[in-house]
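User: I've been going back and forth on whether these two constructs are worth ordering. Before I decide, could you fold them both?

Assistant: Sure. I'll take them in the order you sent them. The first construct and its structure tokens:
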Amino acid sequence: MNDKSNNQAEIDHMLFWPPLLAIVLLCALIVLNPEAGNNAVNSVFAVVTGKLGWTYEIFVLANIGLILYFIFGKYAKKRFGDEKPEFSTLTWLGMLFTAGTTGTIFFWATIEFYYFLSGPPFGLEPFSPEAWDWSMAYSLFNWGIGGYGLYVAIGVVFGYFFFVQKKEVFRPSTACETFLGKHASGAAGKVIDIFYMIGVIAGVSTSIGLGTPIISELITKISGIQHTLGLDAAIIVIWTIIFTISVYSGLEKGIAFLSNVRVYLGYGLLIFIILVGPTTFMLNNFFDALGISLNNFMRMSLYTDAHLQTGFPQGWTIFFYAWFMSFALSTGIYLARISKGRTVREFALGATFSGVLSAYLYFAVLGNYSIQIFNDQVIDVTKIFNDFGAQRAVVEIWNTLPLSMIVLPIFVILIFISTANVINSVAYTLAMVSSKELKYGEEPGKLSRIVWAVILGCLSLTLMFLGGLKPLQTSATAGSFPTMIIMGLIFYGFLKGPKQWD
């Protein structure tokens, strides 16, 4: 963000109020009747993942096919504009490398193996040798090309709009002009934008809902303060206050500085764990898991568990696809924005594999360190997980690291900054979409940005109030379904319509 200009666009009330009121009403109903809220959550999750889950799997495979088409097809050598690249190749790859990960990567990379080990796929016996084979392999699959690829193909389309057609695209409806025509700025376009906003809100609320309890558990471990819903609420309030101050006081440079701190601290911490951890085991188990994942790619891609109906693919693969998808449009816009002058092939390869390698690094280090802690019985991960929850188990695993009283505060800083940046960027995006036409030099209204930040916090807190992982999974999956439809429409319009690249 840059507040050099005092010009601020007016709010588009048709885009601002419907999603805002829908989220407020949802939060109110859940708080007033938690039991009904839980029942509704379970029903929605069952419908979206059970009855419609296969559509996510087909869409992701089609998306991978589209990426391959962009890499090897007739557009591969086309460029995003005639200008030279804005960033050097090394800087660009570094930006891509850090673009797709939030603070929740620390949580999943540390504990995801245990979910798959204790509740493995394909009806396998928990904690069996076969379950061990899949425990890391499934993580690499879920965080691989299928998930990160959702940002890439749509990024190519936005890159074409930005740098070839010279369009200022900050709403999905604008990208649908090819086949909607004048209706893109009418009621049909408004509906598309509202569904997009709801999807983004659902996705980021899942991120906040997963990140907040981890910070609370870290604070509890460091200070002894009891972890309660009140502590979670206080953390979200602090995030909102920081964002409010940044909007009115121009602290964007400070936020950018903190973002850089997050990058250096994060990868510095990984290097530290590599040096003090079981390095040989990390490498051996990572490549073993990678081989299993690659060898069974199609089996995992189309796994629906129609006979046993354990819910494994619905609760994991489809959930992760949905979560990635909820961020696909906004992340695709960002990736395209920083890729001026790049060829389509450069972008597709760079954006896909930078994101995947970044995630794999976290899982290779944190995941395998956790597995070694579990195998060596340094702590009773199973008992902690069952008695106190996944977040406590994660913190206790981190506490086994050397210099833990230094390492734990670093984790607090990393996750706090990461989540604050997510709130900041998504609130800004929502404010842009819900503004009237933004002219050059204009910013979305400050009040609008603050309102969206508060709404994100309130929904996250409401989902945590319901308790457990299921409400967060439901938020991501339900919110992403209309996003999948919107992405399909954008791809259809791009591929069918006449292009300057043709």
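The second construct, handled the same way:
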Amino acid sequence: MERVTQSERMLIGGELVESSSGEWSTSLNPANEIPIGRVPAATAEDVERAVVAAEKAWPQWAACTPMERAGIMNSFADAFAARADEILKVEVTDTGNTIRPMRMIDVPTAVESLRYYAGLAPDLRGETIPATRDHIHMTLHEPYGVVARIAPFNHPVMFAVARTAAALAAGNAVIVKPPETSPLSAMILAEIARDALPPGVFNIVTGEGQTVGDAIVRHPRVKRIAFIGSPTTGRAIQRAAAEVTVKNITLELGGKNPMIVFPDCDPDQVAQAAVAGMNFSWQGQSCGSLSRLLLHEDVHDRVLEAIADRVASLRMGDPLSEDTDIGPVNSEAHMRRILQHCAAADQDGARRIVGGGRPVGPEFEKGYWVQPTIYADVTPKLRLWQNEVFGPVLAVARWREFDQAVEMANSTEYGLTAAIWTNDIKNALKMARQVRSGHLWINGSSMHFLGVPFGGMKTSGVGREEGREELYSYTETKTINIML
């Protein structure tokens, strides 16, 4: 085994521990299928231990002043940043994501989110309500207590940290379940959290979703759960939780996101934005990827040609190399699903422009590789238009009339992100109002801004993250009426 991290233990109650079963799960490098580390294969008993530890820890954590919690969270951010290079190497090797964007986005976002919510903690306030003339009516925001975050495989450590910062700032104790196919960075995170946070405030339980995830979701004392992943799993979480008790569950789920291009745009600029928006550096493995490109017929051919040239020039290879633009996808099962989508697109009559299979060469004989791919002449009736591929596959269509573009954009069950490209502000805002997506860019693509809410409509989820709303979502409102 080619180990990329020395730690092999999860974090429960401030201690680094093995699973109660003594069993392990091995993680493979998706670039070459070589084992690179192992993590505990936890059980429902381990989840129970984590819940007990979190229940013991959160009252004292919540009793801290907001400034005291903020100080500890900032120290956590410092400790995380101090091991950034180590985390980066492990995360790249374990996920297949390329190193340049990981360095610029994942680790900095985790650190910045901790600092952002630490700064918001003192602003978590209730209100007084003039409901009557003679009495005082006011609200308080109190933490749920024990909350859980189930992290996805595409950005494991970023979501484990950045998407728990609001919960910590609100006074909750957290249980994190890392993804089973890329869990190794969580072992480093376990060491950092053990030393930086009070025991039990931050717990990490590794293992399979059917065991660990299900135990977390069904635990009656975990009242608040946040999940990022597929709609199928999101619905399963809702069903399983509802069988036990009433829970607050927020879901950021899939996307089949449109980028709508008007004829007054520069084709080269649009092509650059479309390639960036498709997140090829993440192998297209992002729920916010702009995977449907709607080009006005007047610019369709020029933009498509420019995009094809850019995609064809992307360099595939070792994710740790600074020269690599696109690495492998995360797992063998995921690779097979993507290739099945491509085969279905070929069968349905979409016109393949570039890619569509595994790359050729000795360096790609092992590993989970998929070429960056473009299909043209895709219509709303095709499966490639309707189904989220979650891989480096871009579907391109043409449109003529404004209402036609709106109808095409809204013609899937998803509604996470969208981009609108035009120099006409009236068309931009009119289109933005009519497209049913939760997060839109005008003349931009796939950027997140700390403090700006992110989340989806329709099947793409419920709830908003990354802003003030996320902080309040980790609290319950208590109303107090003072009768004078």
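Notes on the second construct follow. The chain has 16 helices and 22 strands. The chain has two domains: 10-254+460-483, 258-442.
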